[in-house]
Design goal:
globular, Rossmann fold, Translation Initiation Factor IF3, 20 helices, 29 strands
Length: 668
């Protein structure tokens, strides 16, 4: 019996599943609330439930495998620590490419001289003194650093030197772009490194919480983390490479769908609290993204399953448009704590909601509360106004938005604190809507009703109320979720068919058809349908997806244990690592092998290709073993680019050796 506990920590729930990988059976499942201010509580509760259902000893558990949507959610919501971005040898206009400036936001950037040429030779000397001076100036303003060097994948020397300087002068975590991707494309490598640095603290909290829980339960087995391609990675490595766990939760759900559903092909849609993740399953396997994962609009260089993630879930913030629109309500991309959930922990909020209902004039802050999420205290790098509001928020478990932010300046500061992941907002969500409609009753329905009444009183651009009462509002919110989900699914379907991205959402004709439907009497009636089964996963999938499948005129598959598919998939994963070695010819008689410790030159092409082939396999296997694999097999894909000159002569341009090492997790 090979027993593995799979965990999936989402924005709302932490799920657990106990799998016997020998018999392919799910022996037990559990679900608990994710506790963002102390992740150990939710993780511990889920694991204790699992062990309580199973008769056995802790020593019988061979592995704990963890997937999470926290990194994905943070990228989608724009949440994370402040990062100092160090760009080595790039022109100033690099920030205008790959949406790098938008991703950077207000975080500081350091431009320094250095970097390399395409052949791996230095293009200029690294400005070590300038970097040291600027790093010291930023030490109290950021929580980590990201470093990207010009052609660092051809020679990482300057990135590694920068890491050493930054570590010496600040002691903060440092991410180098070359350790995350072997591909060219400096702006996207810089973006990927930036996102990784921003996520380090978040994933570290989760792994630490899981470690402590395992120790308290006498579980001495290894802990592994699911990557975005569905494979596994030892937890201590994942701590420093959290961007590789972007799409971890969705990838685990895909593996869970393949394990649970009796449908080898279909469109998988996993609705969580914060996001909906969509991917095509073919012969039981997801397609992999050739260009790198796209999350929250950012095109990264992270190897991942081809998953499209949108900020739409059961706990999406319900917003209303101030401009005139046929559909005044919109959901996401930010997550909010449902009022019905907050009231189960703090029932006294209903008194404040009731007071707001007695006021003659509805305020935009009605029905909204701010919750602190600062397990490590208030950071030093906040601005004065942000720090003041963070201190106010941290004095109690929650505070009404109207009591903490009475001006537009204060509202802006609160918005920035939410974006930095230091506070959360509680407000009306689809979870509250289904409480009002009687489709879900786990939390406090009375609080949901009061929140619905407060939101229904808000004014549209025409000066009318959003809805006549809380029931009408709840129907409108659920209808918005159905419409936005249907549009996202058909966007993904058209893209997987080879069409452009956002075909449906960018067309008012197509999107309105899914949003409002059509009348059979219409002369120009347009019909859109999904021609493959819809495999629905997630805790609220059985609530919302029958209507979504009807809207798309397709078969709905809602497999057993769909509400914990991510945890099942986490337990069913394997270890997979890739390594790429490039060979170039910078000049006649010189063949350059680009390796992690710097380029190596040989004079013979055959020797260069042989050494590159061997090195790629060795390094891939070493990575897999370091990642926690055993029984490793290696496959090598090689591409040699040459120009035929005629007369049996060729001109060598480049060779690329991609070694993939696959193995079973080294369970204890």
């Amino acid at each position: 019996m090979a027993l593995i506990i799979g965990l999936d920590t989402g924005g709302t729930f932490t799920d657990a599943a106990l799998l016997d990988t020998g018999t392919h059976q799910v022996l037990a499942t559990a679900k608990s609330l994710t506790t963002r201010d102390n992740l150990a509580i939710g993780v511990s509760d889920a694991m204790r439930q699992i062990l309580g259902q199973w008769v056995g000893k802790p020593d019988d558990i061979g592995l704990v495998s963890l997937s999470t949507t926290l990194a994905t959610n943070a990228v989608v919501e724009g949440i994370g620590g402040a990062v100092g971005l160090v760009l080595i040898g790039f022109d100033e206009d690099i920030l205008s490419r790959a949406s790098l400036a938008s991703a950077l936001g207000s975080d500081p950037v350091i431009h320094i001289a250095g970097g390399h040429k395409t052949d791996g030779k230095p293009q200029s000397k690294l400005d070590t003194a300038g970097l040291a001076e600027q790093a010291q100036n930023l030490a109290g303003r950021v929580s980590s650093f990201a470093v990207a060097g010009h052609f660092a994948t051809r020679n990482p020397e300057h990135e590694e030197a920068a890491r050493q300087i930054l570590t010496e002068h600040t002691g903060l975590p440092v991410t180098c772009s070359s350790e995350l991707s072997s591909a060219l494309g400096g702006p996207r490598r810089a973006l990927t490194a930036l996102l990784n640095a921003r996520l380090i603290g978040l994933l570290d909290q989760l792994i630490t919480a899981t470690d402590h829980t395992m120790a308290s339960l006498s579980l001495n087995c290894p802990l592994m983390v699911v990557k975005g391609d569905g494979s596994l990675l030892k937890a201590d490595i994942a701590r420093m490479r959290p961007v590789e766990t972007v799409l971890s939760g969705p990838a685990a759900s895909l593996a869970g769908a393949a394990f649970l559903a009796n449908e080898p092909d279909g469109m998988v849609s996993d609705i969580g609290g914060t996001t909906t993740d969509i991917a095509l399953l073919e012969a039981g396997m997801p397609r992999l993204s050739e260009q790198g994962a796209t999350v929250g609009g950012w095109q990264t260089m992270v190897e991942a399953a081809r998953i499209r993630t949108s900020g739409l879930g059961g706990d999406s913030e319900v917003r209303w448009r101030v401009k005139d629109s046929p559909s005044p309500l919109t959901l996401g991309p930010r997550r909010a704590v449902p009022l019905s959930l907050l009231a189960t922990q703090h029932p006294e909020i209903k008194t404040q909601l009731e007071h707001q209902l007695t006021q003659a004039i509805a305020l935009p802050s009605d029905g909204k509360f701010i919750l602190p999420v600062m397990p490590d205290g208030i950071p030093d790098w906040l601005s004065r106004s942000e720090k003041k509001l963070a201190e106010q928020a941290s004095n109690s478990p929650y505070i009404a938005l109207a009591d903490i932010a009475t001006t537009q300046v204060a509202l802006g500061a609160i918005d920035r604190l939410i974006a930095k992941g230091l506070v959360m907002q509680a407000s009306f969500t689809p979870t509250d809507a289904v409480h009002i409609l009687g489709k879900f009753s786990e939390f406090d329905t009375e609080a949901a009703v009061m929140g619905g009444r407060l939101l229904a009183r808000q004014k549209t651009a025409k000066g009318t109320e959003l809805a006549k009462d809380e029931t009408a509002l709840a129907h409108a919110v659920c209808e918005a979720l159905i419409a936005q989900s249907a549009i996202a699914l058909m966007d993904a379907a058209f893209a997987e068919d080879g069409k452009a991205e956002h075909v449906v959402s960018s067309s008012s004709l197509l999107s309105d058809q899914l949003r409002y439907g059509g009348d059979d009497a219409d002369i120009g009636l347009l019909s859109i349908r999904l021609s493959t089964p819809l495999i629905a996963l997630g805790a609220s999938s059985s609530t919302h997806y029958p209507a979504i499948a009807d809207r798309l005129q397709t078969q709905l598959v809602n497999p057993p244990h769909a509400d914990v598919a991510g945890a099942v998939g986490a337990a069913a994963g394997a270890v997979r690592q890739r390594f790429v070695v490039i060979v170039t010819q910078p000049q006649d008689g010189c063949f350059r092998i680009h390796l992690p410790d710097g380029p190596q030159d040989v004079t013979d092409q055959a020797t260069a290709l042989s050494q590159a082939r061997t090195k790629s396999a060795e390094l891939a296997e070493m990575r897999a073993r370091t990642a926690g694999a055993k029984d490793i097999s290696v496959q090598i894909d090689e591409v040699i680019d040459e120009i035929d000159l005629g007369n049996n002569k060729t001109l060598f341009l480049q060779a690329r050796f991609t070694a993939q090492a696959i193995g079973l997790p080294s369970a204890g």
